[in-house]
Amino acid sequence: MQTAKRSSKLNCFYKTLLCFGIYLVIADIIMLWIVIKPVAPSFQLNSVTVSSLNTTADGELTATFDVAVNLLNPNADLTASCESLELTVWFGHLAITSGTVGRFWIGPNSEVPVRTRFGVDRKLFPRGMVNGVAEQKARGYVDFRVTLLARVRFWWHHIVHTRVRSFTFECYPLNVVFPIDDNNSGTGSFVTPYEL
Asked: How many CB atoms are located within 10 Å of the residue 166 CB?
């Protein structure tokens, strides 16, 4: 009889403990959605270097793009996981090439530098676009456009997370300067930070 009473009291204690634990998890989730609203990350384009930029009369374009970006998570209590970051370089309305950075983490109130390199090798484009690149390069600059597509999820204590949110940012005009001289190797750069 004593054993049955003790077992019943123990079961009641465990059930109460389980209910209290579930209550705490629910309270944490409500706090995340009501009190702690995630603020969108901010991006800063630090530099774009274009090397081996070459065009042909047949409409072929060759170029390598080295892009450096800083991502800032302004949230004091939330960690951000950038599920993917896609950078695309455009000339006019035509995408030239793009590069993707895999998943990385950004701590609360912190900034993470990201650098990626991607390119295009003798890719055929409309001649008007290729001629436009060549004409601008001959003048000492090329106006590219860079878009960033970030897929971000916010985490609270690595337990509760939001759904993946997509953020798109655009930098235009991105004036990449090419030195005008006889030894121009096709390398130009943009080094002034561009706040997004």
From this structure: 10
